[in-house]
Design brief:
With 254 residues, the protein is mainly alpha-helical. It contains eleven helices and no strands.
């Protein structure tokens, strides 16, 4: 289990490093920024693997719930920023776009698309843009995790204030690590949906930096770290989902 968690931490780092120079229509690359945040969150979870005393268990459970909450929020806010930015950039004039950027870089509160059951949730927004996503089970599971995390953080009931776990700490970690794996897999799917090229290798840029002509179609090569992650942690349904939403013709090796 811990090897899988370390692998997704490395995948988050790769998403950051391979995308930070690909500027979005604002001053940064949004996928890189939120992948860096996820790497930090996952690394924090890894540090909770070992405990020195039983008194640390409750504190660690609280921290794991905050990690899950932040990973879910990263998907919500990234989707809002990415889609809102693209929409503003392509459909309004330069003046309005500059006003949007000014607000974005200021102190104005961001109102992201949410995981919820109403008709304005993230699933509704994405399906309006991309058609049926075939992710109903994934969205439903995210909503359940989000509700449980909300109850822990806001202490909605005694069992959340003082959780009584009949499981050993190893089993508690396994439960939370499985949730982290699931949320990150969903994050990976969403960033791929928003920008297929985000999983591209650096070969094309590397050749150009060396003054060499890149091999034909190398801009569609998938970085090996992502192929390895998909082979290791994606089932056949997940793999087929990637293939069905591969609108940029990225060349997977699975």
């Amino acid at each position: 289990m811990i090897d899988d968690i370390k692998q997704i931490k490395d995948v988050a780092r790769a998403l950051n490093h391979l995308n930070f120079q690909k500027m979005d229509n604002i001053y940064v690359n949004l996928i890189a920024i939120f992948s860096e945040r996820n790497e930090a969150l996952i690394n924090s979870a890894i540090r909770l693997e070992k405990i020195e005393s039983t008194e640390e268990i409750t504190g660690n459970i609280i921290l794991l719930n905050f990690i899950l909450r932040d990973m879910i929020e990263n998907i919500e806010i990234l989707s809002w920023l990415k889609l809102k930015n693209d929409n503003v950039y392509h459909k309004i004039g330069e003046k309005e776009y500059k006003e949007f950027i000014s607000k974005l870089l200021g102190d104005e509160k961001i109102h992201p698309y949410k995981f919820s059951n109403n008709n304005k949730n993230l699933k509704y927004i994405l399906e309006n843009l991309y058609g049926s996503l075939n992710l109903n089970d994934d969205f439903d599971k995210i909503i359940v995790i989000k509700k449980e995390v909300h109850n822990y953080i806001h202490k909605n009931g005694l069992k959340y204030i003082a959780p009584i776990e009949s499981l050993t700490y190893d089993k508690v970690l396994e439960k939370y690590f499985n949730k982290i794996k699931f949320i990150f897999k969903f994050y990976f799917k969403i960033v791929f949906l928003l920008d297929n090229s985000c999983i591209g290798s650096s070969d094309c840029i590397d050749y150009l930096d060396c003054g060499m002509t890149p091999p034909e179609n190398c801009q569609y090569w998938v970085a090996p770290i992502f192929d390895e992650y998909i082979i290791n942690q994606f089932d056949d349904n997940d793999k087929n989902w990637l293939k069905n939403n591969n609108n940029y013709n990225m060349q997977f090796n699975f």
